[in-house]
Design a protein that fits this description.
23% of the residues lie in helices and 32% in strands. With 183 residues, it is an alpha+beta fold.
Length: 183
């Protein structure tokens, strides 16, 4: 398992959902238009965000390693997202389903894992580097929320997503994001 984990994450050409840049506001944030896409997800309840990410990641990693109805290995994708609802201890962790499986993703065999379709959406994105902790994600989300409020941008303030793009083995030039959905 560890060998396949390392091989998966050391690959450089990982697929990600399609989006186009609608607006870039210097280094503060970007407004992206994401296309409709399927994601494989799981919800972890009653844990810390860090522990929920760990548990959720492994459930989804087992799915892409063949714990699905077709016993099919599926390529890793980016980003790994986590839905955060401040004050709530339920966390939804998700992997993007690769393009070749978008029309008919293999169904999970773990009852805690499910396929969901995220509709096309306009998303405000703030990017940052380094190793992201739950505290750093919350800090960057608050910065983005403050900027959006100050600029009069309408957004859903009751939740945000974290988005991680890098293997834990990557030490430099790491890329992380926080996302707020436009109203």
């Amino acid at each position: 398992m560890i060998k396949s984990f390392k091989q998966t994450f050391l690959s450089l050409d990982l697929q990600s959902p399609r989006w186009s840049s609608a607006e870039t506001m210097a280094k503060d944030y970007e407004l992206r238009q994401y296309e409709t896409a399927k994601w494989v997800s799981t919800v972890i309840r009653g844990e810390t965000q860090k522990e929920a990410m760990r548990q959720g990641f492994w459930k989804l990693f087992h799915y892409i390693q063949g714990k699905n109805e077709k016993e099919m290995k599926i390529d890793m994708t980016v980003p790994v997202t986590c839905l955060i609802k401040p004050g709530c201890t339920d966390f939804k962790i998700s992997f993007f389903v690769p393009f070749e499986h978008q029309d008919s993703p293999p169904q999970p065999t773990d009852s805690d894992v499910f396929i969901e379709e995220r509709k096309a959406a306009a998303i405000f994105v703030r990017s940052f580097g380094g190793f992201a902790s739950p505290e750093k994600y919350a800090e960057e989300a608050e910065v983005l929320a403050r900027i959006l409020r100050n600029r009069g941008q309408p957004f859903h303030e009751d939740f945000f997503y974290t988005a991680g793009y890098d293997s834990p083995f990557k030490l430099f030039n790491r890329h992380n994001e926080v996302w707020y959905f436009m109203k």
